[in-house]
Amino acid sequence: xxxxxxxxxxxxxxxxxxxxxxxxxxxxxxxxxxxxxxxxxxxxxxxxxxxxxxxxxxxxxxxxxxxxxxxxxxxxxxxxx
Length: 81
Description:
Blueprint: H1 10-22, E1 45-47, H2 52-60, E2 65-67
Parallel strand pairs: 1-2
């Protein structure tokens, strides 16, 4: 969740609570607030507010990327209304 992770709100709460809910299933999570994403040891990227270049970078590294619709930054996309 680059750029917006430092802003409080429901998007941040959902991300943190999703990570916490996965712990009992032995799913290790890493929350990253910076645009520099360290992909070592990562099996899946769950993006909140990733821009197209960040998604492409993750996918180019062979990682599947899922995008959460809870946060959509229209400033990143030219087709928003």
